[in-house]
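Our collaborator T.R. sent over the components below with a one-line note: 'Predict the complex.' Nothing else. No constraints on interfaces, no templates requested, no preferences about which chain binds where. So this is a plain run: every listed entity goes in together, and whatever single assembly comes back becomes the starting point for the next discussion.
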Amino acid sequence: MNGYFGEFGGQYVPETLLPALTELEEAFAAASKDPSFRGEYGAYLRDYVGRPSPMTHARRISGNLGIDVYLKREDLNHTGSHKINNALGQILLARRMGKGRVIAETGAGQHGVATATVCALFGLPCAVYMGSEDIERQKLNVERMRLLGAEVVPVTSGSATLKDATSEAIRDWVANEDTTYYLIGSAIGPHPYPTLVREFQRVIGTEARAQILKKAGRLPDAVIACVGGGSNAIGIFAGFRNDPVELIGVEAYGDGKSRHGASIRFGTPGVLHGTRSFLLQDEDGQVRETHSVSAGLDYPGVGPEHSFLATTQRAHYELVDDARALSAFTMLNRLEGIAPALESAHAVGYLEQYAKDHQGAVVVVNLSGRGDKDLHTVLKEGL
Amino acid sequence: MIAEAIRNRERAIVPYVTAGLKGLDATGEIIRALDAEGAALIEVGIPFSDPMADGPVLQKASHMALLSGFTLDGLFGRLGTWSASVRAPLVIMSYINPLMRRGLEETVARFRDSGVEGVIIPDLPLEAGDIYELCLKAGLDLIRLVAPTTPEARRREVVSQCGGFVYAVTVRGVTGARADLPAGVRDQVAGIRAFTNLPVCAGFGVSSADQVSRMLAFSDGVIVGSHLMARVLEAHDPVETARLTFASLMN
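Returned assembly:
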C-alpha cells in the first residue's frame, strides 16, 4: 500500500492535513525527477554544507578493539550534524511549493539549528518547537537558533521533550497548512515524510559506500548508527541495503532499566504522530515517557522503515545506556580527538560489544553530529 | 439511533465530555445531567497522552484525566450503566492508538456491548474504508470528519463511508473555543449535504448560545467540547457546572 513499509507507516492524521500531505507527496515526486532540483540540492550540499563529509579511520580505537573502525564524519558538516542534509533538501522543496513560513520540531536542537540556518539562508520566517526540558539541557543550540533569527517556542505539555514538541508543531501545521511548510527532522511522521527524509539523508550512505571501498578496499562487515527517530541511520543504511552488510541500529537504553528510548526493543506497534511503528506505550495505548541522556534519542517512537527493517530482520537494533554512551564520548575525545554528539556516542558505545565476537571486522560508524552542544550535560554527569 | 436522535431535536447540541476528568464517577453524573438538559447525543472522549488535534483546553482535560488514573477497563466497567441510564445515544471519541492497542475489532465490539452507538476517530488513516466496514459489522456508526480543506473527491468518499452523522470541522486548526463564527461554514455544510442524506453537525470552536443558533440555521446539530470542558476543569462542582453551562447553550 502507498506510504507503508510492510505493516508500518501510513497517514494517521487529522482530516485537515490530508490535502497538505498529498500536495507534499506530489511536489516531492516532481522534484525528485527534476534535474534542476537535484542539481541545486547537490550544489548546496557541496558549496554550503561542505560535502562530501570525510571518512576517518579511527586508528587508536581500532588498535584497542581489534576491529577496523571507520567514522563517517557528519559532525564536520556545516551546523555540526547530518540534520542539515535533510533541512536543505526540504527547504528547497518548500520554496518550490511557494510556502512562506517554516516550522520544525527539535529535540537536541540539531535539527532546529539546521532548519533555522536554511531559513536564514533563504530569508524565510521560522518557528522551532522545543520541549522546555530540552531547552534547558541544550542551551547553546537555543541561542544559536535565536541568533539565526528563528523563534524558539517552548513546549511545556506532557514530558516537555521531543514528542511534545512534535505534537505542537503538528498543531501549528493543522492551523496553517496553506501557508506553512512543516520541516520534519527525522524519518518519522505521516507519509511521505519517512521516505522524503530518507532520500535527503541517502547521501550519507552513498558517500560512505564509495569511501569505504576506496579506503578498506572492500565493503564493511557492519554499518552502525544510533536510532532515535532514525534519520541518520536510515540515510547511511540506504547506501548498503542491497549489499551483504550487517546493518546495526543502536537505541538509547537510558538508565539501563525502565527509563529509556528503546522503542524497537521494548515497544509494540502503535500510532504516534501520524505513523504506525514500534512505540513505547502502556496497556491502554498511552504513550510512555522516555529518558535518554541525549535529547535527540529521547523519543518513544521510531521511523516506520526501521520497524520494517527490524521485523524483516534486514537490520538489528542493539542497546547502549547513558553510562556507556558517556564513556564512549570520553573515549572518542581521548583516543581520536573527536567530540561526538551524545546521540552519536551511542553508536560508538556499541563498538566494544561488537568487537568481542567480530575480531578483524571492518565497520563504519555514522558519527552523526559533534558534541559541543553536550559539554554542559557531560560535565554535569561528572566526567 | 444517532441520526434520529439529532433529527428529533429542535435544538440539537452534542456535548463532548472527557472521560475521567474529575474522576469517572463525576463523568457518569455529568453525562446524566447533560442528558436531563436535553443533549441530542453525548460524545465520551477517551483521554490520550498525545492529543495532536486538540487545543490547550482538551489537552489539559486529557492530561488531568490520565493523572487521576483513567483506564479503559475502568471506563468499560461503567459505560454499560451510563448508556442504560440516559436517553441520548453515547458515542466514543478517541484517537486511534488507544482503540488499536488491544485490537480494533475487539475494542469496538466491547463498546457496542456497552451500549455505545458510534465512534469518532480524529486521526483515522487515509484508507479508512476498512475501519468503516469493521464498525458497520460490529453495529457501530463510524462518524467521519470533513475539514474545510477536504477536496470534493475526498468529501464524497468520506461521506459514503460514514454513519450516524457527518462531523463538519468548521475551523482550520485544533479544537478550542473561538469568539466568531468561522467564515465559509455555511458553504462547507452545503458542500457536504450535496453528497449525503446523513445529518451534518458542525463543531470546533463553538462557545455561545448565539453561535449555536446561527449554526443551527444551516446545520442539523452543533458540537460543543472545549467550552464545556474549560468550565468543568475549573469547577468545584463539575456536575452542576456542566449542567449550567450546557443549559445556557440550550436557551
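Summary for T.R.: The interface with chain A takes residues 48-55, 59, 63, 66, 71-72, 95-102, 122-127, 144-151, 154, 158, 169, 172-174 of chain B (CB under 8 Å).
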